[in-house]
Amino acid sequence: MQSSLARPLRPPVWAGRGGSGDPRVSASVVRCRAEAAPPVGTAARAPVGPYTGRDPEVKKPAWLRQRAAQGEKYARLRESIGELKLNTVCVEAQCPNIGECWNGGGGAGGEGDGIATATIMVLGDTCTRGCRFCAVKTSNKLPPPDPLEPLNTALAVASWGVDYVVLTSVDRDDLPDGGSSHFAQTVKALKELKPGILVECLTSDFRGDLEAVSSLANSGLDVYAHNIETVRSLQRIVRDPRAGYDQSMAVLKHAKSCREGMITKSSIMLGLGETDEEVRQTMMDLRAIGVDILTLGQYLQPTERHLTVREYVTPEKFQFWKEYGESVGFRYVASGPLLFPAYGK
Questions:
Q1: What does the DSSP 8-state code read for residue 4?
Q2: Where residue 239 sits, what CATH number does that domain have?
Q3: β-bridge mates for residue 138, sequence order
Q4: How many domains does the chain have?
Q5: Residue numbering of the annotated binding site
Q6: Which domain holds residue 236?
Q7: Model-level pTM?
């Protein structure tokens, strides 16, 4: 499974800032101008050690602590999702920000706008890949996709009254098209039920199948998202061997070319041992293929079996990366400790 914001980029901030074809979606991000080297601030570092296993002495800094999930909107969404047998990356990937997002409180780094959001995960709750950052279940024997899921998803989302929805999925390497047609059916059902809704699809790499990418990109979605996850040097440590830096770049480049005005988006996890220069280079590579929106967030170890955190990156450093990214041409950059690019596609 790829990583995602457990929370979508939000609609309100986009108005009046993009060119023709902009879907007017964004997180609560601030425009910025910095190009200088990263600030020298001190980061809270986890001890150097093996990539797996949790050190019980390492404590999360205060800026990463979240309240337990609760609230009226959270309870209502949880009940609705359960009744319709839908999966969300928020639940399956054990995202610690679920309560804030589902209540519309802006806990993923944006100001609260009262819009309850959830990232719906189609194609089941079990992934064919085993990335070492992700807590979603894995198996090489999966049941076929639920043919009613596209309609059920559309009905649920329409009933919530939201204006923006993110669809993501597990990796389905067992399917001939990687599940792209199932994604496309879901988008079309959503648009039929609620024509004005903005749909972001946070996708797998479909094993590099560009025909599958084209099929989904032309389904009516508004934002095509696929996460690079980490810098080039850490790809083999962090991601399943079937994923890769160049393959992900090819997917994003092709999606951008499929339709005029297509908005593309990607995400990077920080805190896995990457250097500032590697982050810079990844950002420049994404800009070179026209990626419009970038999110950066803190990697958090979901279980003791997953990669350890090498560094807790400070809020000041995240602010620097937001300013740097927008200075080099990203339309918007959402960057903060509580943005979770590591859970989704």
A1: -
A2: 3.20.20.70
A3: 127
A4: 1
A5: 90, 95, 101, 127, 131, 134
A6: 67-336
A7: 0.76
Which residues sit in the known binding site for [4Fe-4S] cluster? 90, 95, 101, 127, 131, 134
In terms of DSSP H, where are the helices of the chain? Answer: 72-83, 89-92, 98-103, 149-160, 180-193, 210-217, 235-238, 245-258, 276-288, 315-327
At 195-241, the pLDDT tens digits run 989 999 999 999 999 999 999 999 999 999 999 999 999 999 999 99
Domain membership flag for residue 55: no
Query: What is the chain's length?
Result: 345
User: How far is 1 from 172, CA to CA, in rounded Å?
Assistant: 9
CA distance 32 to 253: 25
| Residue 90 lies inside a defined structural domain of this protein | yes
Q: Which long-range contacts (CB under 8 A, 24 or more apart) does 279-286 make?
A: 279/231, 279/321, 280/324, 281/231, 281/232, 282/228, 282/230, 282/231, 282/232, 283/321, 283/324, 283/325, 283/328, 283/330, 284/328, 285/249, 286/228, 286/249, 286/252, 286/330
Q: Which of 22, 241, 26 is nearest to 132 (CA)?
A: 241
Is residue 323 assigned to a domain?
yes
The 8-class DSSP code of residue 192 comes to: H
Tokens representing 232 are 């080039």
The per-residue pLDDT for range 22-59, each reduced to its tens digit, is 333 333 222 232 334 444 444 454 444 345 344 556 67
Q: Which of 277, 212, 293 is nearest to 250 (CA)?
A: 212
